[in-house]
């Protein structure tokens, strides 16, 4: 399985963990953070598989629908589960739309 960064970048979107540190931010980019890591299933006092939740945030100036669709399609094709696309938010100071996407990774 590819890393989250590799999958996002395969969609043509620059990506960084935590905060985007590029000096000149592109019109569209992503950041990602791990929210949670634990057992996917627990039975007979043993963990079975791993489960990780990540928040991928799409930053976009202008209409973000095409980029959001491409991002979620690439994530699903790489084997990640889309748990939800959360409330979009517009930052008047920067002109970026922020669209949080919660993804889940299951490992056996």
Automatic annotation (TrEMBL):
Recorded protein name is Uncharacterized protein
Native organism is: Acetatifactor muris
